[in-house]
Amino acid sequence: MSINTSGIIEQHKIEDHIPTFAPDQEVRSPRENSFDLLSRSGVKRLLFLACDAAAIALTYEVSRIAMQRLLGIPRANQSPPGYQWFYLPFLLAILYLAEGYQSPDLRRPEKELAIIFRAVSLSFLALVCANFIFFKDLGFSRYLFVCWYGLALLIIPLFRQGLKGVYEALWRRGLAQQRALWVGSTEKLAEFQNLLSVQRYRGYLMVGVIPGSEVSEKYPPATSTRTRFDALACWEEAVERLHVQLVVVSLPSTTPGSHEWVREILQRSKGLGVDVEVYSDLFATSEFNYELDDFSGFFRFYAAPVWSLQFQRAAKFCIDLLSGLVGSILTVLVLPVVALLIKLEDGGPIFYHSAYVGPDGNDRYYLKFRSMRVDADRILERDPELRKQFEARCKLKRDPRVTWIGRFLRKYSVDEFPSFFSILLGKISLVGPRTIMQIQKEKYGSTLSKLLSVKPGLTGFWQVMGRQLTTHEERVQMDMFYIDHWSIWLDLWIIFKTFWKVLRAEGAY
Questions:
Q1: Which helix (H) or strand (E) holds 122?
Q2: d(CA 201, CA 330)
Q3: Domain co-membership, 344 together with 367
Q4: pLDDT, tens digit, for every residue of 270-300?
Q5: Which residues pair with 289 in a beta bridge?
Q6: Range of 414's domain?
Q7: How many domains does the chain have?
Q8: Which pairing describes strands 299-302 and 275-278: parallel, antiparallel, or unpaired?
Q9: Which of 19, 31, 141, 458 has the fewest C-beta atoms lying within 10 Å of its C-beta?
Q10: Reduced to 3 states, what is the DSSP secondary structure of residue 216?
Q11: How far apart are CA 468 and CA 507, in angstroms?
Q12: pLDDT band per the 50, 70, 90 thresholds, residue 396
């Protein structure tokens, strides 16, 4: 029986990829390799700790050099000798207390960015206070601390993202993944895997399934101690045979004895050293935050503070205004060169008015540099096969209508530069769902009104998760994911990823 090593499973092929576990069935366990150690939570925390230590030390030294060369402050006057033996463990300890190392590999990038921002700010504030207590008679450069803090806010997330990038590269090769066992219905497993696929997360290697239907049929509600322990023996045997590190439990509430089953798994996981993740649509909601009430033992749900949402919306407005202004200036600067190249190729117009569906359902337009031939629409009308491909994806991989200079403009997204004028005018946003055309409306179905309720963006979630390499169905799911999980931190992460994708010209055509 084959074991899946991809980490991402298509929804309609679940049963073909993951073996169903039974106590009397011989199942081949995944082959161990030298990278398995990297999948352990403790090792990951140590790696993130070392990553932060390197980032903190680097930013400190860079700040000292900058203060000496730019402001002429001697190194001896910036901080006491041997100061690194104090600040490094101190800052790392505060980062730890601020939950900087609480399963950093399980946090989404925008959540990680928000936590690191708060943790680094708290750490440097605590360091300044500690300096007044322990080094009050020694001199410190306040310019050093301002520069150091600013660099740390930038470099620590970059180093962490680099470490996560290494893990993602290993996961794509089937290495350093957590071996997971699924307990529950295969329908929910399809939802779970699809949720991971939308986010391009490959950290789990699903090595076996104990379907919820088999649990309810073969192991009915625990009417006796023996029945309950027979069922648990199946779970424990699967953990042992398949070298499982994580059990994902998703039993519907209508399954008899499901809550008792989950409770027993949670209790026994302590002794086995296995993590347990309970998959539930309720806990996956993006509309509420929740935390554990230690007194009652239950989760308490609460909405995000109004002031927090208002602050994030104000920050998004400022980012749009600033990016629109800077981008418009850049567009004016590159306009003569781009215009000359376009005119030299075919003598046609420089700009193209790109249509998109506005919130009222009618067409609106934003400017782009023209990257297609003047007769592009007629070419599409004359070729039925080409039109069929275009209507299926609203994009052609080898589009014969694109000009030579247009391919270059598209590869590095230069054709999008005039869109900054629309951002400056408030017509579109820097980050948001991708604009859609009239022929795409029906593909969004019941989610269309939700899509049109949000201002479209020049870049967005699906662009940084694969750009044109994603299918249209994936784009719809990714747009909905962005709307459901929006925060200013998600926008900042998308902006960073956009620069990286554009520089690498990844997935562009």
A1: helix 109-134
A2: 35
A3: yes
A4: 777 888 888 876 665 556 677 777 888 777 7
A5: 302
A6: 312-504
A7: 3
A8: unpaired
A9: 31
A10: helix
A11: 5
A12: low
Could you tell me the CATH number of the domain that includes residue 251? 3.40.50.10700
**The pair of three-digit structure tokens given for residue 500, joined into one six-digit string:** 């990286």
Is 420 inside any structural domain? Answer: yes
**29 inside domain:** no
pLDDT of residue 280: 74
CB contact at 8 A, 346 and 404 = no
Distance from C-alpha of 321 to C-alpha of 212, rounded to nearest angstrom: 52
Q: Which two tokens stand for residue 233?
A: 């023996």
Over the Cα atoms of the chain, what is R_g?
A: 27
| Position 292 in a domain | no
Distance CA 417, CA 413 (A): 7
In whole angstroms, give the CA distance from residue 38 to residue 403. Answer: 47
Judgement on whether residues 358 and 258 belong to the same structural domain of the protein: no
CA-closest candidate to residue 309, choices 125, 495, 487, 50: 487
Backbone angles phi, psi at 75, to 5 degrees: -60, -35
- List, for residues 42-58, the tens digit of each pLDDT value: 889 999 999 999 999 99
Tens-digit pLDDT profile for residues 250-268? 866 555 566 676 777 777 7
pTM: 0.81
* Residue 307 belongs to a domain: no
